[in-house]
């Protein structure tokens, strides 16, 4: 680029000088008349002031500029020709070769050559003869357009090489730095990549080991519910080898109810969400390869693999759990039956006592009745004698009859007979009431029947009377117009007896006597909620706040060893729940407890419907 710039500058100088047919300059020691222009008239002139001037032709001017430039700047410029007029313009071997190539049509020559032992970049272009050139060179036979020589420019390479070396050093340093950094990055990247790959392989191995050793089956499904993977636990559960089920529908393994799936057309599936319902977990029926079935618990979760939705199904065999649950239910049923039998035994003992008391009263009163009847019989016999005598003996017998009446105190005898009859009737009514209550409580029904809440409460009080009559008073506040409801009276009677006995125990634990111990039993109908309520409120010891939530748990009891099974309230809770109701508890420790049994009524025409009995 520098050589081309120097050349173009020289061409501009030459063209300017040629257009002006040279210039006249003062003759000096450095600028002497050009001897090669001596044949041209007027090349040397004297001004009117006497100053001598000589004509400087374009070549002469450029040579002087070359001399100044080479001295001050370094580039070597040379006008040369194969037929120079001036010997100093003779071409060196490289220039001669370049000039010869110009005559063959080449437009320029470039090469790196040594000049005086130093490297130079040499650049040369041909000089074309112009009209202004013929003034000096026409004698050589040149015409306009002929190649009469060339301008050679030689640029010293030393400064360029120095710059290049410095640039190369910095470039090499940068390249080496980047290479080192790049290699370091590659090595570190490979190292971390290797660690990542190893860690990933380790995680995959660990995950695979976990999956392979899981007790639960793990099955993955694609978007079309086809099996993608099948772990060893699933193989044990279903009896299929992985290759036998991979790619097959999930229906191969399960009976899925319609509510768990919604079918979509394959053509529309791309726009559909994943169609497996994921309400976890739920129970299904698994189908083994041998055709047998077994209960399973299955839960689905969803993940993405790229753009595909993948379902992960966790399958657990419920066979063992179902057996354990059934065994637990059987055990609970046995315990409940035992609790009922124990309660029944207690009630039977109480009933026997309750019946024995009025029966003994009847027996004792019958002895008195017999004695009083003998008195009456004696009096009647005397009266009979009196009626059968003659008139003369009538006065005598009447006096005897009067004396006997006073002796027997006949009015008192008749009063005693009336009193004995009344007490016996009362005892018989008491026995009849106990028998009826016992009959109702002992009559078990498999289905719900129409029940009257107040009757059940009264029966429970009757049957529990012998166990509470020495410990507390019972106050009743039973609403008269409570609608009937559907239920099992003997079961609810068991609940009410349990609550009555619990109230007695709470009163005794607090240290209250019959005078102070109190159980208030009330019933009412809530028309707003269509519920009937039975409230058992005692003034016993109460329940601590921290254990209220546990009182319905099986085997939970605050009573001493051997004083309770912990099943009474649990059984009561289960019975009320089976009736679609619930039991609320309000208690303040040290003050008392209120158990509220709440049941759904079945009589929409309340209050017109009255209670039975």
Explain what you see:
With 613 residues, the chain is of the alpha+beta class. It has four domains: 159 residues, 2-Layer Sandwich (Beta-Lactamase); 104 residues, Beta-Lactamase, CATH 3.30.450.20; 110 residues; 171 residues, Heat Shock Protein 90, CATH 3.30.565.10. The protein has 13 helices and 20 strands. The strands form five sheets. Strands 9-8-13-12-11-10 form a six-stranded antiparallel β-sheet. The protein has a five-stranded mixed β-sheet with strand order 15-17-18-20-19, covered by helices on one side. It has a four-stranded antiparallel β-sheet with strand order 4-7-6-5, with helices on both faces. Helix 1 runs antiparallel to helix 2, helix 8 crosses helix 11 and helix 11 crosses helix 12. The chain is rod-shaped, with a radius of gyration of 67 Å. The C terminus is likely disordered.
Q: Radius of gyration, rounded?
A: 67 Å
Shape: rod-shaped
Spatial strand order of the main sheet = 9-8-13-12-11-10
Helix content: 40-55%
Task: Give the CA-CA distance, first to last residue.
Answer: 130 Å
What number is the mean pLDDT? 77
The CATH architecture designation of the largest domain is 2-Layer Sandwich
- Strand percentage, roughly? 15-25%
What structural class do you assign from the helix and strand content?
alpha+beta
The CATH superfamily title of the largest domain? Histidine kinase-like ATPase, C-terminal domain
Which CATH first-tier class of the largest domain would you pick? Answer: Alpha Beta
């Amino acid at each position: 680029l520098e050589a081309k710039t120097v050349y173009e500058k020289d061409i501009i100088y030459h063209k300017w000088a040629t257009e002006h047919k040279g210039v006249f300059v003062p003759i000096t020691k450095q600028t002497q008349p050009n001897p090669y222009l001596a044949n041209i008239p007027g090349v040397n002139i004297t001004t009117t002031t006497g100053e001598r001037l000589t004509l400087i032709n374009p070549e002469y001017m450029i040579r002087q500029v070359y001399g100044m430039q080479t001295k001050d700047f370094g580039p070597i410029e040379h006008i040369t020709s194969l037929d120079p007029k001036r010997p100093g313009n003779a071409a060196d071997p490289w220039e001669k070769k370049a000039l010869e190539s110009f005559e063959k049509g080449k437009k320029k020559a470039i090469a790196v050559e040594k000049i005086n032992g130093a490297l130079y970049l040499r650049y040369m272009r041909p000089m074309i003869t112009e009209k202004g050139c013929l003034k000096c060179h026409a004698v050589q036979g040149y015409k306009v357009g002929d190649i009469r020589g060339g301008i050679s420019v030689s640029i010293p390479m030393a400064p360029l090489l120095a710059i290049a070396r410095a640039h190369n050093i910095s470039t090499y340093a940068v390249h080496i730095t980047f290479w080192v950094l790049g290699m370091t990055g590659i090595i570190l990247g490979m190292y971390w990549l290797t660690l990542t790959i190893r860690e990933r392989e380790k995680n995959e191995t660990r995950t695979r080991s976990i999956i392979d050793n899981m007790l639960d089956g793990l099955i993955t499904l694609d978007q079309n519910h086809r099996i993608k993977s099948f772990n060893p636990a699933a193989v044990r559960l279903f009896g299929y080898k992985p290759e036998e089920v991979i790619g097959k529908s999930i229906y191969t393994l399960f009976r899925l109810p319609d509510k768990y799936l919604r079918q979509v057309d394959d053509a529309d599936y791309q726009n559909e969400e994943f169609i497996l319902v994921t309400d976890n977990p739920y129970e299904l029926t698994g189908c083994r390869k041998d055709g047998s079935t077994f209960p399973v618990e299955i839960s689905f979760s969803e993940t993405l693999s790229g753009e595909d939705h993948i379902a992960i199904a966790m399958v657990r065999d419920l066979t063992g759990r179902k057996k354990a649950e059934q065994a637990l239910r059987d055990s609970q049923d046995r315990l409940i039956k035992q609790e009922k039998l124990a309660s029944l035994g207690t009630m039977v003992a109480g009933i026997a006592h309750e019946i024995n008391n009025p029966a003994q009263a009847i027996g004792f009163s019958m002895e008195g009745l017999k004695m009083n009847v003998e008195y009456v019989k004696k009096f009647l016999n005397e009266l009979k004698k009196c009626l059968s005598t003659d008139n003369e003996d009538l006065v005598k017998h009447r006096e005897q009859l009067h004396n006997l009446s006073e002796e027997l105190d006949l009015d008192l005898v008749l009063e005693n007979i009336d009193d004995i009859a009344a007490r016996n009737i009362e005892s018989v009514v008491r026995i009849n009431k106990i028998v009826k209550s016992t009959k109702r409580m002992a009559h078990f029904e498999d289905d719900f029947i129409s029940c009257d809440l107040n009757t059940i409460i009264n029966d429970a009080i009757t049957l529990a009377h012998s166990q509470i009559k020495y410990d507390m008073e019972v106050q009743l506040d039973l609403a008269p117009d409570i609608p009937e409801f559907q239920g099992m009276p003997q079961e609810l009677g068991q609940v009410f007896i349990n609550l009555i006995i619990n109230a007695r125990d709470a009163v005794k634990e607090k240290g209250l006597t019959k005078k102070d111990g109190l159980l208030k039993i009330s019933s009412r109908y809530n028309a707003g909620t269509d519920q009937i309520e039975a409230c058992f409120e005692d003034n016993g010891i109460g329940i601590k706040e921290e254990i209220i939530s546990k009182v319905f748990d099986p085997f939970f009891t605050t009573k001493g060893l051997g004083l309770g099974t912990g099943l009474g309230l649990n059984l009561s809770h289960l019975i009320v729940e089976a009736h679609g109701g619930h039991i609320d508890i309000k208690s303040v420790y040290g003050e008392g407890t209120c158990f509220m049994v709440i049941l759904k009524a079945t009589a929409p025409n309340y209050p017109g419907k009255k209670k039975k009995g």
